[in-house]
Known about the structure:
Elements: E1 2-6, H1 10-21, E2 25-30, H2 55-71, E3 79-88, E4 105-106, E5 118-127, H3 129-142, E6 146-149, E7 162-165, H4 171-174, E8 181-191, E9 199-206, E10 209-215, E11 219-225, E12 227-228, H5 237-248, E13 259-280, E14 283-291, H6 295-313
Parallel strand pairs: 1-2, 1-7, 2-6, 3-9, 7-14
Antiparallel strand pairs: 3-5, 4-5, 8-11, 8-12, 8-13, 9-10, 10-11, 13-14
Helix pairs in contact: 1-3, 1-6, 2-6
Amino acid sequence: MQIAIIGCGVIGLSAAITLLKAGYKVVIYAKEFPPHTTSDVAAAFWFPYKVEYTNRVKAWAKKSFEHYEILAKNPYSGVSFITLLDCYHHAVETPEWADAFNQIQSLDKEEIPAGYTDGFKLEVPLIDTIVHMPFLLHTFKELGGNLVQMEVATLDSLKEKIIINCSGLGARELVMDKELYPIRGQILKLEKTNTQIQHITLGHEDEKTTTYVVPRGSDILLGGTAQDNDWNVNIDPEMEKEILKRCSIPVPEIVGLTKKSAAVGLRPARKNIRLEVEKVKDKIILHNYGHGGSGYTLCWGCAEEVKLLIQKHRNQIS
């Protein structure tokens, strides 16, 4: 029996790889493949962001963290561990997601970046999307997965009896989910040159703004924005200047570095992530979308639950 997955971002690919390793045949249907997905634009480090931290989310986050520990041992995966400075403009208590780590420490006064008053430091997975997304695609193909480039207009158009809907924002039209909305994120990439930035700086500003400086293999990624219900995918030049100015306060080493590129991504969000089974006519539909700003943080845990749900419900297919 072949399983169909709609969507080739990190949510779709992680589910596909997990199922292939479990012995299933898998085909991915997608309008866009890497490097042209929203997942390719993400800053992509482990951190619960723009998601309600329920017990389910906690379990998915922890499982994903453990999977990144395995992937980090593969030099071709694009996954490594890095120190994250999690910074705030006010005094804060230890965050509720801290139990996913072996340790999290409060920042000493001299460790707090300029512009902030409190924070924590911890070791987190950093996923270099430039390397990691091709790695996932290669892994999928090596395991025998098939790719079909097409936009899926209706679930009835697919012949497979088990369909996993990882279509992200596409689910608004595909399954008429009007709870789904975009969170616009704009980022800027700088040439790395000889700058020795050794950690991620993450600064919490307000509901629409988060400051982050992420050193990766071939660039330094700056962000960002979190604009709810904003469908604009064009670069805002003024916002780009504001991001650069904001990031240069805690990390002045970026001043004067050459711009490499800029991008906008629309994160697929809803009040609660939709990961559930639905029986439609003679098909089993398993929805897996709406991860907000936590796609990379949750994808492997969600993929594992997808596998377990398929094992539980596959005998319902006539």
